[in-house]
Amino acid sequence: MAEVHDKPVEKWTESDVSSWLRSIGVKEQYIQKLHEEEVDGKILKELTEDYLKKETGMKSGPALLIVKKRNELVESFQVHKPQKVKKTHASGLNTEAGRQNEEQGTDSKVSGFCGKYIQHHAANLHFMQNYKIPSDMSIREFESHLHLFEQTSWIFCNGRSDYRGNEAPCDEMTWIKTKITLLRESVSLICKQILPKGTFLVIFLLTSPVEKPLLHTFYEFFTDMEGHEDIICISECEDNYQKWKGFAGSVLQCRDGESF
């Protein structure tokens, strides 16, 4: 295992992954199943507890062990240590050492902002359903479980084109029907329990035409943050900004009688 530990996890082969799993005491039946799924280092970096349980029949104990040990390995190869600051970035939702990115782009991991980021930083790759606290877990235990204040957490709100699990991207109307409740719950958890009011910013990066899921995301943050004082919008073009301004302005007028 010395050779494996001398290189970043994303450069591991399938055999490297199998050897590492044996070294941390994972049962051979699970190792074989992951080998059949062609899990190499890049895929290992993305594995979640839910995926391990669903795809291999693994129990929570070994699944949590794999995720925990994997995160420790990834962190050991970080190019830069995160600073202890809190800020949130939605389209991104970002907290560095607690930084979280809510990502609407399904290709972000492959060819977008997320892909560029993880070339130089360790990151947790999550989906919105990961932001549900089990009834027997405290908020601090939940934060530790997801490693929220250890490295950036990237929350994919509309699936991922490169993900092998059951998280396929969907069109706008399907997203509104099936995902909006998850969005509401995850934003509420982040704003009301994880990050204290006044300690973070939400930054909307408009790098593509504005679509309804992003507008719903703004509305949920606006509602749970009780206003727009800590919400910032950065747009790369005038057209995107004008569409955004029209929607955000109507929300503000309906809620507070303000203009945007």
TrEMBL record:
Source domain of life: Eukaryota
Transmembrane segments: none
Region annotation (Disordered) ranges: 81-107
InterPro entries, sorted: SAM, SAM/pointed_sf
Pfam families: SAM_1
Matching SUPFAM superfamilies: SAM/Pointed domain (SSF47769)
GO cellular component, one term: cytoplasm
Name used for this protein in its record: SAM domain-containing protein
Residue ranges of domain SAM in the record: 12-58
Organism field: Aldrovandia affinis
Gene3D superfamilies attached to this UniProt entry: Transcription Factor, Ets-1 (1.10.150.50)
